[in-house]
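Worked example

This section walks through a single chain of length 398. The input is the sequence exactly as stored; nothing has been trimmed or padded.
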Amino acid sequence: MVDQFTFAGIPHTVFGRGHFKKLPDLAAGYGRHMLLLTGSSSLRKSGYYSRLTGALERRGVTVYGARIEGEPSPDLVDDLSDRFRERNPDVVVAIGGGSVLDGGKAVSAMLPADESVMAFIEGVGEGKEHGGEKVPFIAVPTTSGTGSEATNNAVLSRVGEGGFKKSLRHDRFIPDIALVDPQLCMSCPPDVTAASGLDAISQLLESYLSTEASALTDSMAERALELAGKYFIPAYSTGATNPRVRAAMAYASLVSGIALTNAGLGIIHGLASPIGARVPIPHGVVCGTLLGEAVRLNIELLKDEGQAGRKYLHKYAVSGALLAGEGKTSIQDSETGSYCDLLVRTIERWLERVSMPRLGEYGLGEGDLEVIAEKSGNKNNPVRPSRDRMIGLLKKRL
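Given that input, the structure is written out below as C-alpha coordinates.
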Protein backbone atom coordinates (compact mmCIF):
# COMPACT_ATOMS: atom_id res chain seq x y z
CA MET A 1 0.00 0.00 0.00
CA VAL A 2 1.33 3.43 -0.95
CA ASP A 3 0.66 5.82 1.91
CA GLN A 4 1.44 9.52 2.21
CA PHE A 5 5.06 10.61 2.46
CA THR A 6 7.40 13.53 1.86
CA PHE A 7 10.64 13.25 -0.07
CA ALA A 8 13.64 15.56 0.02
CA GLY A 9 15.47 16.43 -3.18
CA ILE A 10 18.39 14.51 -4.58
CA PRO A 11 21.49 15.92 -6.27
CA HIS A 12 21.90 16.25 -9.99
CA THR A 13 23.67 12.90 -10.31
CA VAL A 14 26.37 12.05 -12.83
CA PHE A 15 27.09 8.32 -12.44
CA GLY A 16 29.39 6.12 -14.48
CA ARG A 17 32.87 4.78 -15.02
CA GLY A 18 35.22 7.43 -16.38
CA HIS A 19 32.84 10.29 -15.64
CA PHE A 20 35.46 12.00 -13.45
CA LYS A 21 36.63 13.62 -16.69
CA LYS A 22 33.37 15.61 -16.70
CA LEU A 23 34.25 17.38 -13.46
CA PRO A 24 36.20 20.31 -14.97
CA ASP A 25 33.27 21.33 -17.17
CA LEU A 26 30.77 20.85 -14.35
CA ALA A 27 32.82 22.99 -11.96
CA ALA A 28 33.62 25.66 -14.56
CA GLY A 29 29.89 26.09 -15.10
CA TYR A 30 29.67 27.82 -11.71
CA GLY A 31 32.46 30.38 -12.24
CA ARG A 32 36.20 30.96 -12.33
CA HIS A 33 37.18 30.35 -8.71
CA MET A 34 36.98 26.91 -7.11
CA LEU A 35 37.78 25.60 -3.64
CA LEU A 36 38.98 22.01 -3.97
CA LEU A 37 38.99 19.87 -0.82
CA THR A 38 40.61 16.42 -0.84
CA GLY A 39 41.82 13.75 1.54
CA SER A 40 45.36 13.22 2.72
CA SER A 41 47.22 11.97 -0.37
CA SER A 42 45.61 9.17 -2.40
CA LEU A 43 44.10 11.44 -5.05
CA ARG A 44 47.48 13.04 -5.68
CA LYS A 45 49.29 9.71 -5.83
CA SER A 46 46.78 8.36 -8.34
CA GLY A 47 47.40 11.19 -10.80
CA TYR A 48 43.77 12.30 -10.77
CA TYR A 49 44.59 15.51 -8.90
CA SER A 50 47.13 16.81 -11.40
CA ARG A 51 44.93 15.91 -14.35
CA LEU A 52 41.98 17.70 -12.77
CA THR A 53 43.83 20.88 -11.85
CA GLY A 54 45.49 20.98 -15.28
CA ALA A 55 42.12 20.69 -17.02
CA LEU A 56 40.67 23.42 -14.80
CA GLU A 57 43.57 25.77 -15.50
CA ARG A 58 43.02 25.29 -19.24
CA ARG A 59 39.44 26.43 -18.68
CA GLY A 60 40.60 29.52 -16.84
CA VAL A 61 39.52 28.30 -13.41
CA THR A 62 41.62 29.33 -10.41
CA VAL A 63 41.86 26.47 -7.90
CA TYR A 64 42.32 26.98 -4.16
CA GLY A 65 43.21 23.68 -2.53
CA ALA A 66 43.09 22.30 1.00
CA ARG A 67 43.10 18.89 2.65
CA ILE A 68 40.76 17.28 5.15
CA GLU A 69 42.53 14.52 7.05
CA GLY A 70 40.41 12.42 9.38
CA GLU A 71 36.88 13.21 10.44
CA PRO A 72 36.09 16.95 10.26
CA SER A 73 35.76 19.01 13.42
CA PRO A 74 33.99 22.33 13.91
CA ASP A 75 37.39 23.98 14.35
CA LEU A 76 38.53 22.67 10.97
CA VAL A 77 35.36 23.89 9.26
CA ASP A 78 35.74 27.32 10.87
CA ASP A 79 39.40 27.51 9.85
CA LEU A 80 38.75 26.58 6.22
CA SER A 81 35.76 28.92 5.99
CA ASP A 82 37.77 31.81 7.43
CA ARG A 83 40.76 31.12 5.16
CA PHE A 84 38.79 31.07 1.92
CA ARG A 85 35.81 33.37 2.56
CA GLU A 86 37.53 36.48 1.18
CA ARG A 87 38.52 34.61 -1.98
CA ASN A 88 34.84 34.19 -2.80
CA PRO A 89 34.95 30.75 -4.43
CA ASP A 90 32.14 30.19 -6.90
CA VAL A 91 31.96 26.48 -6.15
CA VAL A 92 33.26 24.04 -3.54
CA VAL A 93 34.33 20.60 -4.77
CA ALA A 94 35.10 17.79 -2.30
CA ILE A 95 36.75 14.59 -3.54
CA GLY A 96 37.26 11.78 -1.04
CA GLY A 97 35.57 9.55 1.49
CA GLY A 98 32.63 10.48 3.66
CA SER A 99 34.70 12.67 5.99
CA VAL A 100 35.99 14.80 3.13
CA LEU A 101 32.51 15.14 1.64
CA ASP A 102 31.01 16.08 5.02
CA GLY A 103 33.77 18.62 5.59
CA GLY A 104 33.25 20.12 2.14
CA LYS A 105 29.50 20.24 2.64
CA ALA A 106 29.93 22.13 5.92
CA VAL A 107 32.43 24.57 4.43
CA SER A 108 30.13 25.33 1.50
CA ALA A 109 27.40 26.11 4.04
CA MET A 110 29.57 28.29 6.27
CA LEU A 111 31.40 30.38 3.64
CA PRO A 112 28.42 32.78 3.39
CA ALA A 113 28.02 32.92 7.19
CA ASP A 114 30.26 35.12 9.28
CA GLU A 115 30.13 33.03 12.44
CA SER A 116 31.21 29.67 13.84
CA VAL A 117 29.59 26.48 12.64
CA MET A 118 29.03 25.66 16.32
CA ALA A 119 26.09 28.04 16.26
CA PHE A 120 24.17 25.63 14.04
CA ILE A 121 25.18 22.08 14.99
CA GLU A 122 22.27 19.97 16.24
CA GLY A 123 22.20 19.30 19.95
CA VAL A 124 25.49 20.96 20.94
CA GLY A 125 25.44 24.35 19.27
CA GLU A 126 23.69 27.58 20.09
CA GLY A 127 20.41 26.38 18.67
CA LYS A 128 20.42 28.74 15.72
CA GLU A 129 18.69 27.65 12.54
CA HIS A 130 20.81 27.90 9.42
CA GLY A 131 19.00 29.58 6.55
CA GLY A 132 20.34 27.12 3.99
CA GLU A 133 22.49 29.62 2.07
CA LYS A 134 25.64 28.02 0.68
CA VAL A 135 28.22 28.13 -2.06
CA PRO A 136 27.34 25.57 -4.77
CA PHE A 137 28.76 22.19 -3.80
CA ILE A 138 29.93 19.22 -5.89
CA ALA A 139 30.56 15.91 -4.09
CA VAL A 140 32.82 13.26 -5.64
CA PRO A 141 33.06 10.10 -3.48
CA THR A 142 36.12 7.86 -3.61
CA THR A 143 34.64 5.21 -1.29
CA SER A 144 31.29 3.42 -1.34
CA GLY A 145 29.90 3.84 2.14
CA THR A 146 28.43 6.95 3.72
CA GLY A 147 26.29 8.13 0.82
CA SER A 148 27.24 11.68 1.84
CA GLU A 149 27.10 12.67 -1.82
CA ALA A 150 23.30 12.52 -1.49
CA THR A 151 22.57 13.54 2.12
CA ASN A 152 21.38 16.81 3.63
CA ASN A 153 23.73 16.76 6.63
CA ALA A 154 27.41 17.08 7.44
CA VAL A 155 28.66 15.11 10.45
CA LEU A 156 31.19 17.01 12.57
CA SER A 157 32.89 15.75 15.70
CA ARG A 158 35.14 16.37 18.66
CA VAL A 159 36.67 13.21 20.08
CA GLY A 160 37.38 12.54 23.75
CA GLU A 161 35.87 13.22 27.15
CA GLY A 162 32.91 15.50 26.62
CA GLY A 163 33.18 15.01 22.87
CA PHE A 164 30.35 14.84 20.36
CA LYS A 165 29.51 13.71 16.88
CA LYS A 166 26.60 15.72 15.54
CA SER A 167 25.15 17.10 12.31
CA LEU A 168 24.92 20.42 10.55
CA ARG A 169 21.70 19.91 8.61
CA HIS A 170 19.42 21.61 6.08
CA ASP A 171 17.63 20.26 3.01
CA ARG A 172 19.50 22.82 0.90
CA PHE A 173 22.80 21.23 1.95
CA ILE A 174 22.14 18.29 -0.36
CA PRO A 175 24.99 18.58 -2.92
CA ASP A 176 24.15 20.41 -6.12
CA ILE A 177 25.97 17.71 -8.07
CA ALA A 178 26.99 14.20 -7.08
CA LEU A 179 29.61 12.88 -9.48
CA VAL A 180 29.97 9.16 -8.83
CA ASP A 181 32.74 7.46 -10.81
CA PRO A 182 33.17 3.87 -9.57
CA GLN A 183 36.67 3.83 -11.03
CA LEU A 184 37.81 6.15 -8.24
CA CYS A 185 37.10 3.34 -5.74
CA MET A 186 39.27 0.71 -7.43
CA SER A 187 42.39 1.59 -5.42
CA CYS A 188 40.47 1.60 -2.13
CA PRO A 189 42.20 -0.81 0.34
CA PRO A 190 40.29 -3.98 1.31
CA ASP A 191 39.74 -2.92 4.93
CA VAL A 192 38.31 0.45 3.86
CA THR A 193 36.19 -1.25 1.20
CA ALA A 194 34.78 -3.62 3.84
CA ALA A 195 34.01 -0.95 6.43
CA SER A 196 32.52 1.38 3.83
CA GLY A 197 30.40 -1.35 2.30
CA LEU A 198 29.01 -2.42 5.67
CA ASP A 199 28.23 1.21 6.47
CA ALA A 200 26.19 1.45 3.26
CA ILE A 201 24.43 -1.83 4.02
CA SER A 202 23.63 -0.73 7.58
CA GLN A 203 22.17 2.51 6.21
CA LEU A 204 20.06 0.63 3.68
CA LEU A 205 18.78 -1.77 6.32
CA GLU A 206 18.06 0.93 8.88
CA SER A 207 16.25 3.18 6.42
CA TYR A 208 14.30 0.19 5.06
CA LEU A 209 13.26 -0.78 8.62
CA SER A 210 12.69 2.81 9.70
CA THR A 211 9.38 3.89 11.15
CA GLU A 212 9.52 6.74 8.60
CA ALA A 213 10.13 4.52 5.55
CA SER A 214 7.89 5.02 2.54
CA ALA A 215 6.99 3.09 -0.60
CA LEU A 216 9.56 5.17 -2.49
CA THR A 217 12.47 4.63 -0.10
CA ASP A 218 11.54 0.93 0.18
CA SER A 219 11.66 0.39 -3.57
CA MET A 220 15.06 2.05 -3.80
CA ALA A 221 16.48 0.23 -0.79
CA GLU A 222 15.37 -3.23 -1.93
CA ARG A 223 17.25 -3.04 -5.23
CA ALA A 224 20.32 -1.58 -3.53
CA LEU A 225 20.29 -4.33 -0.89
CA GLU A 226 20.13 -6.93 -3.64
CA LEU A 227 23.15 -5.43 -5.38
CA ALA A 228 25.08 -5.09 -2.12
CA GLY A 229 24.37 -8.70 -1.23
CA LYS A 230 25.78 -9.85 -4.55
CA TYR A 231 28.81 -7.60 -4.79
CA PHE A 232 29.97 -6.71 -1.26
CA ILE A 233 32.39 -9.62 -0.84
CA PRO A 234 33.68 -9.43 -4.45
CA ALA A 235 34.44 -5.72 -3.93
CA TYR A 236 36.48 -6.68 -0.88
CA SER A 237 38.29 -9.53 -2.60
CA THR A 238 38.56 -10.82 -6.16
CA GLY A 239 36.44 -8.13 -7.81
CA ALA A 240 38.15 -5.07 -6.35
CA THR A 241 39.16 -3.81 -9.80
CA ASN A 242 36.07 -5.05 -11.61
CA PRO A 243 34.08 -2.04 -12.89
CA ARG A 244 30.73 -3.82 -12.54
CA VAL A 245 31.44 -4.76 -8.93
CA ARG A 246 32.56 -1.27 -7.95
CA ALA A 247 29.61 0.31 -9.78
CA ALA A 248 27.15 -1.87 -7.87
CA MET A 249 28.59 -0.85 -4.49
CA ALA A 250 28.80 2.80 -5.54
CA TYR A 251 25.12 2.67 -6.46
CA ALA A 252 24.23 0.99 -3.14
CA SER A 253 26.08 3.73 -1.28
CA LEU A 254 24.38 6.50 -3.27
CA VAL A 255 20.94 5.02 -2.61
CA SER A 256 21.74 4.58 1.08
CA GLY A 257 22.33 8.33 1.32
CA ILE A 258 19.06 9.14 -0.44
CA ALA A 259 17.16 6.63 1.71
CA LEU A 260 18.54 7.78 5.04
CA THR A 261 17.86 11.43 4.22
CA ASN A 262 14.21 10.59 3.63
CA ALA A 263 13.57 7.76 6.11
CA GLY A 264 16.09 8.16 8.90
CA LEU A 265 18.21 5.54 10.67
CA GLY A 266 18.13 3.24 13.70
CA ILE A 267 20.09 2.03 16.71
CA ILE A 268 23.35 1.29 14.86
CA HIS A 269 23.78 4.94 13.98
CA GLY A 270 22.25 5.94 17.29
CA LEU A 271 25.19 4.18 18.96
CA ALA A 272 27.78 5.17 16.36
CA SER A 273 27.62 8.86 17.28
CA PRO A 274 28.53 8.57 20.99
CA ILE A 275 31.11 5.87 20.21
CA GLY A 276 32.78 8.05 17.58
CA ALA A 277 32.74 10.98 19.97
CA ARG A 278 34.48 8.96 22.71
CA VAL A 279 37.25 7.14 20.81
CA PRO A 280 38.91 7.71 17.41
CA ILE A 281 37.33 4.94 15.35
CA PRO A 282 36.29 4.98 11.68
CA HIS A 283 32.53 5.37 11.30
CA GLY A 284 32.28 2.43 8.92
CA VAL A 285 34.00 0.15 11.43
CA VAL A 286 31.51 1.10 14.14
CA CYS A 287 28.52 0.42 11.91
CA GLY A 288 30.00 -2.74 10.46
CA THR A 289 30.99 -4.32 13.75
CA LEU A 290 27.60 -3.58 15.35
CA LEU A 291 25.50 -4.63 12.37
CA GLY A 292 24.96 -8.30 13.14
CA GLU A 293 24.22 -7.93 16.84
CA ALA A 294 21.95 -4.93 16.27
CA VAL A 295 19.88 -6.81 13.70
CA ARG A 296 19.73 -9.85 15.97
CA LEU A 297 18.52 -7.73 18.91
CA ASN A 298 15.88 -5.94 16.84
CA ILE A 299 14.50 -9.21 15.49
CA GLU A 300 14.38 -10.71 18.97
CA LEU A 301 12.50 -7.72 20.40
CA LEU A 302 10.12 -7.50 17.44
CA LYS A 303 9.09 -11.11 18.00
CA ASP A 304 7.83 -10.03 21.43
CA GLU A 305 5.77 -7.23 19.87
CA GLY A 306 3.20 -9.57 18.39
CA GLN A 307 1.12 -8.09 15.58
CA ALA A 308 2.85 -4.72 15.94
CA GLY A 309 6.20 -6.25 15.00
CA ARG A 310 4.93 -8.37 12.12
CA LYS A 311 5.49 -5.76 9.38
CA TYR A 312 9.08 -5.15 10.42
CA LEU A 313 9.91 -8.84 10.79
CA HIS A 314 8.66 -9.32 7.24
CA LYS A 315 11.01 -6.55 6.08
CA TYR A 316 13.93 -8.19 7.87
CA ALA A 317 12.99 -11.45 6.14
CA VAL A 318 12.97 -9.74 2.74
CA SER A 319 16.36 -8.23 3.56
CA GLY A 320 17.68 -11.69 4.40
CA ALA A 321 16.56 -13.03 1.04
CA LEU A 322 18.03 -10.08 -0.85
CA LEU A 323 21.39 -10.01 0.91
CA ALA A 324 21.75 -13.79 0.64
CA GLY A 325 21.31 -13.57 -3.11
CA GLU A 326 17.87 -15.11 -3.46
CA GLY A 327 16.36 -11.98 -5.01
CA LYS A 328 13.06 -12.67 -3.30
CA THR A 329 10.69 -10.00 -1.97
CA SER A 330 7.56 -12.12 -1.62
CA ILE A 331 7.94 -13.91 1.72
CA GLN A 332 5.20 -16.07 3.22
CA ASP A 333 4.42 -15.66 6.92
CA SER A 334 5.62 -19.21 7.53
CA GLU A 335 9.01 -18.29 6.01
CA THR A 336 9.62 -15.11 7.99
CA GLY A 337 11.56 -16.73 10.83
CA SER A 338 13.90 -18.69 8.58
CA TYR A 339 14.71 -15.67 6.43
CA CYS A 340 15.34 -13.51 9.49
CA ASP A 341 17.79 -16.17 10.66
CA LEU A 342 19.36 -16.19 7.19
CA LEU A 343 19.91 -12.42 7.43
CA VAL A 344 21.79 -12.72 10.72
CA ARG A 345 23.87 -15.64 9.45
CA THR A 346 24.77 -13.78 6.26
CA ILE A 347 25.96 -10.72 8.16
CA GLU A 348 27.93 -12.83 10.65
CA ARG A 349 29.60 -14.67 7.80
CA TRP A 350 30.59 -11.39 6.20
CA LEU A 351 32.03 -9.97 9.43
CA GLU A 352 34.18 -13.06 9.83
CA ARG A 353 35.22 -13.03 6.16
CA VAL A 354 36.45 -9.42 6.27
CA SER A 355 37.91 -9.71 9.81
CA MET A 356 35.85 -6.77 11.02
CA PRO A 357 37.58 -5.25 14.06
CA ARG A 358 35.93 -5.09 17.47
CA LEU A 359 35.32 -1.94 19.46
CA GLY A 360 37.92 -2.80 22.07
CA GLU A 361 40.68 -2.59 19.47
CA TYR A 362 40.13 1.17 19.37
CA GLY A 363 40.30 1.72 23.12
CA LEU A 364 36.69 1.29 24.10
CA GLY A 365 36.20 -0.56 27.40
CA GLU A 366 33.36 -1.78 29.58
CA GLY A 367 33.62 1.40 31.63
CA ASP A 368 32.53 3.40 28.59
CA LEU A 369 29.43 1.43 27.75
CA GLU A 370 26.94 2.92 30.21
CA VAL A 371 27.74 6.46 29.06
CA ILE A 372 27.46 5.44 25.42
CA ALA A 373 24.14 3.72 25.97
CA GLU A 374 22.87 6.75 27.88
CA LYS A 375 23.80 9.10 25.03
CA SER A 376 22.63 6.82 22.24
CA GLY A 377 19.45 7.37 20.28
CA ASN A 378 16.94 4.93 18.86
CA LYS A 379 16.22 7.40 16.07
CA ASN A 380 13.68 5.74 13.75
CA ASN A 381 14.33 2.21 14.96
CA PRO A 382 11.25 -0.07 14.72
CA VAL A 383 11.57 -1.10 18.37
CA ARG A 384 12.94 0.53 21.54
CA PRO A 385 15.64 -1.51 23.29
CA SER A 386 16.25 -0.81 26.96
CA ARG A 387 19.54 0.68 28.09
CA ASP A 388 20.60 -2.69 29.48
CA ARG A 389 19.95 -4.36 26.14
CA MET A 390 22.00 -1.68 24.40
CA ILE A 391 24.87 -2.26 26.82
CA GLY A 392 24.58 -5.99 26.19
CA LEU A 393 24.78 -5.40 22.43
CA LEU A 394 27.95 -3.33 22.86
CA LYS A 395 29.58 -5.90 25.15
CA LYS A 396 29.24 -8.56 22.47
CA ARG A 397 31.37 -6.46 20.10
CA LEU A 398 34.06 -5.27 22.54
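What to look for: The mean pLDDT is 95.
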